[in-house]
Amino acid sequence: MNFEESRYGQRAEDNFKKGYNCSQAVFLAFSDLHGMDEKTAARLSSSFGGGMGRLREVCGSVSGMFLVAGVLYGYDTPGDARGKKEHYERIQQLAAAFEKENGSIVCRDLLGLNRKKDVPAPAERTEEYYKKRPCGKLVRMAAAIMEQYIEEHPLEGYSAVLSSGTAGNHLHDLQ
């Protein structure tokens, strides 16, 4: 997939430039599919920016992609061993696709940091910040990978929504 042509990738990058963290940027890009209101979606995904609260662990854009996968494809029954296995396989596929493009799914590796934990206060978003950080590119890529996965593994009724360009239907409308 050409990441530059991804509609969801563009949405994610735009969200990041508005000031959302990486996880929020990706998760909010798919609001038309998961149907969650913006405030709830932003709050749900807020803890995962900076590699989980600036702990610099799993990249927030990857966590955002996993949140989308969970809402759209996840299992919800405690004893569903088959559903759990299938979902974890899906998550590992998505992680592998991101890692193939970037060499890692870990925030500190992607940013070239040599420390695990970072200060809780995020850096101010300036033009210099955007020039030094690959985060805009990473959120675009994570959303594009998720978009491609959805295209290859459509939910019932999803392909019509995607091809129409009016993906205003919510998840409950697609099932």
Describe the structure.
This protein has 175 residues and is an all-alpha fold. The chain has one domain (3-174). Helices cover 64% and strands 0% of the residues. It has helices spanning 7-18, 22-29, 31-34, 38-45, 49-52, 60-73, 81-102, 107-111, 127-132, 135-152, 158-164, 171-174. Helix 1 (7-18) packs across helix 2 and helix 7 packs across helix 10. The two termini are 26 Å apart. The model is unreliable at 159-175 (pLDDT under 50).
Summarize the helices and strands and which ones pair or pack.
Blueprint: H1 7-18, H2 22-29, H3 31-34, H4 38-45, H5 49-52, H6 60-73, H7 81-102, H8 107-111, H9 127-132, H10 135-152, H11 158-164, H12 171-174
Helix pairs in contact: 1-2, 1-10, 2-4, 2-6, 2-10, 6-7, 6-10, 7-10
In short:
The chain contains 12 helices and no strands. The chain is mainly alpha-helical and 175 residues long.
Core attributes:
175 residues, mainly alpha, 0% strand
Shape: globular
Q: Give the amount of beta strand, in percent.
A: under 5%
The total tally of domains equals: 1
Main sheet: strands, sense, barrel: none
- Please trace the helix and strand order, writing H or E for each element: HHHHHHHHHHHH
Determine Rg (CA atoms, Å).
Answer: 16 Å
Average of per-residue pLDDT values: 88
N-to-C CA distance? 26 Å
What is the subunit organization of this protein?
single chain
Q: Segments where pLDDT lies below 50 for 5+ residues?
A: 159-175
Helical/strand content category = mainly alpha
